[in-house]
Design a protein that fits this description.
By secondary structure, this protein is mainly alpha-helical. It contains 16 helices and 5 strands. Helix 6 crosses helix 7 and helix 12 crosses helix 13 (279-292). The longest helix is centred in the N-terminal third of the chain and has 27 residues, at 7-33. The two termini are 34 Å apart.
C-alpha cells in the first residue's frame, strides 16, 4: 500500500509506477539470464510471474465533477473511478491470491481497514496520532505462517511522530499491555478517554453558545433538529433561520464564525462515540451555514495550483555528489523500549501539546491559508 499526499499525487504516482513497471520487468529478466544457480533462477522466475500479473489500482473518495477537474490537471480519473465502481476492490485487495497487490491511497484504507496480508506500507504523507498508529498497523498484522512482521517504508520522516502518538495511544510496560506510557501519573493526565471527554465538553459548550445566539435572534435550533419534523417543515424552518441571521452583516458574520468553531471541534471529535449526542444539532447548524453560503461561487484554483507545482518541480534538482546510502535507517518497531519511552514522556509531559490544541492550530492555519488562496 502506497499512502500519498492527496488525490492528484495518487494518480500521478500510478502513472509513474506504470511507466517504469516494464523497465522493472526487464531488469528481472536480465537477472534471470545472469543467475548463478538454478535456485536463484527459479526464485526470480516466480517473482517475474507475480510482477507481470500484478495490478496497481488507485483508491480515493469520489467528489463532484472530479473527471473534469482532474482532466484539467492532465490526469485520468474516469478509468480509476470505473474500477472502483464496477469492482469490489476492497475484497480483491484482501485476497492474497488476487493480482491486485498494490493500492495507492491518500485518505481511504489507512484507518478502519483490516487487511492482514498487507506486507509493506510506503508512507509519503505527513500523518500523526491515531491515524499514524492505524496506518502502521496495516502492515504489522501477523498472517498465517509466512508473515511475522511488516515493513514500513518512510519517505517523509513520519517515524519522528511515532513517539508523540505513543504518548497518547500507546501502552506502556510490556507488549501485553501494562500501564499507560509515561508512568501512572502521566497516564492519568494523558489517557485518550479523558482527552475525548474534554473534546466533547468543548463541543457541547460551543453548540450551546451557537444555539443561544440563534435564540436571541428569534430562531429555535430545535425546530430544525427535531427528527419528527416533516421535510417541508424543515425547509420552512431553514428559511426562517436564514432570514433571522440576515438581519445585517454583523449577525450573519458572527454566526458563521461560531458555526466554523462548531465544525472544527466536531471534526476533532469525529468519529468517536462521544460525538453521537451532537450529530443532530451539528447537522442543523451545518444546514443553516450551507444555506447562507449556497450562492457563493467556488473559485477555480486548479490553474494556480498547477502553476505552483511547475515552479516547485523546476526548482528541485538532484546533486549526485550528495547521494549516499545511510546505514541504520531501518527501525524494528518490536524492539521499542517502553521503559525509556515512559521516562521520556514523564520529562516532556508538559511540552507535548494536547490533541485539541493541535487540531485547533491546524484547522486555524488551514482556514487562513485557504482564504489567502481564494
Amino acid at each position: 500500500m502506497l499512502v500519498t499526499l492527496d488525490k492528484p499525487t495518487a494518480l500521478r504516482m500510478h502513472d509513474l509506477i506504470m511507466k517504469y513497471w516494464p523497465q522493472y520487468i526487464e531488469d528481472i529478466k536480465l537477472r534471470i539470464a545472469n543467475a548463478e544457480d538454478i535456485e536463484e533462477e527459479q526464485s526470480l522466475r516466480r517473482k517475474l510471474k507475480k510482477v507481470e500479473e500484478t495490478e496497481v489500482c488507485v483508491i480515493v473518495s469520489q467528489e463532484q465533477n472530479e473527471v473534469d477537474k482532474f482532466r484539467k490537471m492532465n490526469l485520468d480519473m474516469a478509468t480509476h473511478r470505473k474500477k472502483m465502481v464496477e469492482r469490489d476492490l476492497e475484497k480483491e485487495f484482501k485476497d492474497e491470491e488476487n493480482p491486485f497487490r498494490l493500492a495507492i491511497v491518500c485518505a481511504m484504507w489507512i484507518t478502519g481497514f483490516d487487511a492482514p496480508c498487507v506486507s509493506t506500507v510506503y508512507l509519503d504523507k505527513p500523518i500523526k496520532g491515531h491515524t499514524l498508529m492505524q496506518t502502521i498497523a496495516r502492515a504489522n498484522r501477523v498472517y498465517d505462517d509466512e508473515k511475522e512482521n511488516g515493513l514500513i517504508v518512510d519517505y517523509g520522516n513520519v517515524y519522528k511522530q511515532l513517539e508523540k502518538a505513543y504518548s497518547v495511544y500507546g501502552e506502556g510496560g510490556k507488549a501485553s499491555g501494562g500501564k499507560t506510557a509515561g508512568g501512572d501519573q502521566a497516564g492519568k493526565q494523558q489517557r485518550p478517554f479523558e482527552l475525548l471527554e474534554s473534546l466533547a465538553e468543548d463541543l457541547q459548550e460551543t453548540i450551546r453558545q451557537t444555539q443561544g445566539y440563534l435564540s436571541e435572534l428569534g430562531f429555535k435550533l430545535g425546530d430544525l433538529s427535531n427528527e419528527t419534523a416533516k421535510p417541508m417543515e424543515k425547509i420552512a424552518n431553514l428559511k426562517k433561520a436564514v432570514d433571522c441571521l440576515c438581519l445585517n452583516e454583523t449577525t450573519r458574520t458572527k454566526f458563521e464564525v461560531m458555526a466554523r468553531d462548531v465544525f472544527r471541534k466536531y471534526h476533532a471529535l469525529f468519529p468517536e462515540p462521544q460525538v453521537k449526542p451532537f450529530i443532530r444539532k451539528f447537522n442543523a447548524i451545518e444546514a443553516i451555514y450551507q444555506q447562507l453560503n449556497q450562492q457563493t461561487k467556488s473559485a477555480d484554483v486548479i490553474s494556480i495550483i498547477m502553476h505552483l507545482q511547475q515552479i516547485v518541480d523546476a526548482s528541485i534538482t538532484i546533486d549526485s555528489n550528495l547521494l549516499h546510502n545511510p546505514e541504520n535507517v531501518s527501525v524494528d518497531l518490536s524492539t521499542l523500549d517502553f521503559e525509556k519511552l515512559k521516562a521520556v514522556f514523564k520529562k516532556r509531559l508538559r511540552k507535548i501539546p494536547s490533541f485539541l490544541t493541535f487540531k485547533e492550530q491546524f484547522n486555524g492555519n488551514w482556514i487562513r491559508c485557504l482564504k489567502k488562496i481564494l
